[in-house]
């Protein structure tokens, strides 16, 4: 038993015997072995998903190989990573817009000014500067230098 624990710590996995080979409740148990030949082929995983859940095919319950289970977890982990990174980018954009325009949740007295406030403050600063320089503000067609 101690050797099985050591093997699992070194990357080996416990494989339960299939009911066809041995009764699952038999005291014989399964085997601890190292998974070495993963295919990383999406067609294998998609093949399980395309099976019929009715009848004898068994849909994803019909996975009968430990390598396919590990391969499915690798693909699932990549999908989770992709979805979580996508969600972080979407939520970051939503938060940016919320903070930029919502002066009730983020008042300017405690945080930086919102985007429209900063834009108006910048426009007012340039207007005062141009008036001090005695520029004709009415004829200005765009940003001044």
UniProtKB/TrEMBL annotation:
Membrane topology category: Multi-pass membrane protein
Subcellular location: Membrane
Any GO BP annotation: photosynthetic electron transport chain
InterPro entries: PS_antenna-like, PS_II_antenna-like_sf, PSII_PsbC_sf
Membrane-crossing residue ranges in chain numbering: 80-101
GO (cellular component) term, any one: photosystem II
Keywords assigned by UniProt, alphabetized: Chlorophyll, Chromophore, Membrane, Photosynthesis, Photosystem II, Plastid, Transmembrane, Transmembrane helix
GO molecular function: chlorophyll binding
Stretches assigned to coiled coil: none
Protein name according to UniProt: Uncharacterized protein
């Amino acid at each position: 038993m101690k050797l099985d624990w050591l093997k699992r710590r070194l990357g080996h996995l416990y494989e339960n015997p299939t009911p066809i080979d041995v009764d699952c409740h038999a005291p014989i148990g399964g085997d601890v072995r190292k998974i070495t030949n993963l295919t990383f082929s999406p067609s294998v995983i998609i093949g399980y998903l395309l099976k019929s859940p009715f009848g004898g095919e068994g849909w994803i319950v019909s996975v009968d190989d430990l390598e396919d289970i590990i391969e499915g977890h690798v693909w699932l982990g990549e999908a989770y990573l992709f979805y979580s990174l996508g969600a972080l980018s979407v939520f970051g954009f939503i938060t940016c817009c919320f903070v930029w325009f919502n002066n009730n949740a983020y008042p300017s007295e405690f945080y930086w000014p919102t985007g429209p406030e900063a834009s108006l403050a910048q426009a007012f600063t340039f207007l005062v500067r141009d008036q001090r320089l005695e520029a004709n503000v009415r004829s200005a067609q765009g940003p001044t230098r």
